[in-house]
Design goal:
10 helices; TIM Barrel; eight-stranded parallel barrel; alpha/beta; binds (2S,3S,4S,5R)-3,4,5-trihydroxy-6-oxo-oxane-2-carboxylic acid; Jelly Rolls; Immunoglobulin-like; globular
Length: 584
């Protein structure tokens, strides 16, 4: 799915800003058809932002159910005879959209975009009312899964099996844009590299017309290759490659017969897994970085360019070359930034919490394990989440691998049955990138599905959840386990999570748990083990920064495994990592 752009043939208007907003704890909005007029008792809500922490009330913070957004939108007068599209970069987790009294779209899945075609519903020059209802409930058919309890006093309580707060709402940009009636609907680009020569394989889909021309230009605007077919291969001799640390981009301009023009940034690079190496442009790549979250005070998961650029500055300062979009697709702005700056990304679906054992939020009477609880509906939502992720992010050179789940139960035989078709779906959607999942602390002989994947990604908490406080044992057990994975699978291993909670400012000569010093010592123990096991090609610390979570009594004001605090101040671990990753 192409991102809205301004080009010679396209215009784009941001609908970010203050919208009318109403919580709907009594589920009145749908039966009373609130889209037909101004929202009752509305307050104001900034878009983009998660809604939860903005109003400063427990009701908003803990709300479970529908919330309503509304604003008036004027269609520019010059858009006569053109296609008009309303685009939501995200709405967590389910949304229905109306233009005046007419439903124009609905979508499920809180981290991927969707569009409503308004052509035929709108008159250029006139204003209309956009109303969106967003439901933040997670159930056993959704990705991620959850359970909503109705308490004896009538309140709802949302349970879920993942360790980050269920921020929701319109937490990414909203756009109104226009294209000619016939338009470039999609472009798919993959690139191949032989020495310094490259090939750009493309396919362009034009709705209601045909491709007129495809032109590849370099960063200086000089034409390097041209074609006039809907699909083909462009040869680029002496190409400047996209590589880690160097986000070199070309531009592919696709023109359609009806005059539409779309320009797509293209990074030329090749990704491969060979034996136990992860190769980018034929060279072994070692992942240094973090699992992150989209998480900040007040905004929750609301995208903000200021915070994004600052996070990338800190990644640069600490010497990271990569991160994982744990545990959901991040805003497209983030991937575009990574493309431009040569940061490598493992791109993850929102399939987190497919595992009852980790979260301990089950009550008597609940299904005994996840595979007894989820079924075809969940698997279908998961498949859609994979396909929507690939459809959105397939053209980003920064994305080198798809992670299709975080810490699912991978011990029970049902896990294999559930995942086999999903791995197939991921490969069918994109044959060019490796596929992985992040595996929960489970030894290789108990795991039933890692052989289906290209890279072994391990989340390991030796020294924290196991061997708590004993880093000598932790280091020994970690190394033994890594060697076993290497022996059994012969694939690259990335440790996609390791870390310890540390409360900033709590120091200790005896390095007890929760101190900054223990966090440093734990990371160092892991690093010694990594450096002894050749198949380890990546180290992603959990987490880049402290983040909000509703995870029960072993969390104090959020998860404190950040190397930076929630407001991005470095803990001792940040300096230790910087020394390891930059030598400074
Ligand atoms: C994990 C999860 C991550 C948690 C982390 C922790 O294994 O993947 O979402 O936040 O552990 O801190 O417990």
């Amino acid at each position: 799915m192409l991102r809205p752009l301004e080009t010679a043939s396209r215009e784009r208007v941001s609908l970010n800003g203050l919208w009318a907003f109403a919580l709907d704890p009594g589920d009145r909005g749908r039966p009373e058809e609130w889209w037909r007029g101004p929202l009752p008792e509305a307050s104001e809500m900034p878009v983009p932002s998660s809604f939860n922490d903005v109003p400063a009330t427990r009701d908003a913070h803990d709300h479970v159910g529908d919330v309503w957004y509304q604003r008036s939108v004027r269609i520019p007068a010059g858009w006569e005879g053109r296609r008009v599209v309303l685009r939501f970069d995200a709405a967590a987790h389910r949304a229905v959209v109306w233009w005046d009294d007419v439903e124009v779209g609905r979508h499920e899945g809180g981290y991927t975009p969707f569009e409503c075609d308004l052509t035929g519903h709108v008159r250029p020059g006139e204003a209309g009312r956009v109303t969106v209802v967003v439901d933040n409930r997670l159930d056993l058919g959704s990705i991620p899964p959850g359970i909503v309890d109705v308490l004896p006093d009538g309140r709802r309580r949302q349970r879920y099996f993942h360790d980050f707060f269920n921020y929701a709402g319109l937490h990414r940009a909203v756009w109104l844009y226009t294209t000619p009636a016939s338009y470039v609907e999609d472009i798919t680009v993959t690139t191949e590299v032989t020495g310094t020569d490259a090939r750009v394989l493309y396919r362009a889909d034009v709705a209601g017309g045909r491709v007129a021309s495809v032109v590849l230009r370099d960063a200086g605007g000089v034409e390097r290759a041209r074609a006039d077919t809907a699909s083909g291969t462009l040869s680029v001799p002496d190409a400047t490659l996209w590589r880690p640390g160097h986000g070199h981009l070309y531009e592919l301009e696709v023109s359609a017969s009806g005059g539409d023009v779309y320009t797509l940034p293209v990074g030329i690079r090749e990704v491969a897994v060979e034996g136990d190496r992860f190769l980018i442009n034929g060279e072994p790549f070692h992942f240094r970085g973090f699992g992150k979250h989209e998480d900040n005070a007040v905004r929750g998961k609301g995208h903000d360019d200021v915070l994004m650029v600052h996070d990338f500055a800190l990644l640069d300062w600490v010497g990271a070359n990569s991160f994982r979009t744990s545990h959901y697709p991040y805003a497209e702005e983030v991937l575009e930034y990574a493309d431009r700056h040569g940061i490598v990304v493992i791109d993850e679906t929102p399939a987190v919490g497919l595992n009852f054992e980790i979260a301990h939020t089950l009550v008597p009477g609940d299904p005994p394990h996840i595979w007894a609880a989820v079924g075809d509906t969940t698997q279908e939502a998961h498949r859609r989440a994979i396909e929507e992720l690939v459809a959105r992010d397939k053209n980003h050179p920064s994305v080198v691998m798809w992670s299709i789940a975080n810490e699912p139960d991978s011990a029970r035989p049902q896990a294999r049955t559930y995942f086999e078709p999903l791995v197939r779906a991921a490969r069918a959607a994109d044959p060019s990138r490796p596929v992985c999942f992040a595996q929960v602390q489970l030894p290789p002989d108990q795991d039933v599905m890692s052989d289906l994947f290209d890279v072994i990604c391990l989340n390991r908490y030796y020294g924290w959840y196991v061997d708590t406080g004993d880093l000598v044992t932790a280091e020994r057990e970690l190394e033994a386990e890594l060697r076993e994975w290497a022996r059994l699978h012969g694939k690259p291993i990335i440790v996609t999570e390791y870390g310890a909670d540390a409360v900033a400012g709590v120091r200790s000569v005896a390095a007890g748990t929760w101190t900054e010093d223990y966090q440093v010592e734990l990371l160092e123990a892991f690093h010694r083990a990594f450096d002894r096991v050749e198949s380890v090609v990546g180290e992603h610390v959990w987490n880049f920064a402290d983040f909000a979570t509703g995870y029960g009594v072993n969390r104090a004001d959020g998860n404190k495994k950040g190397v930076f605090t929630r407001d991005r101040r470095p803990k001792a671990a940040a300096f230790a990592l910087r020394r390891r990753w930059t030598g400074r």
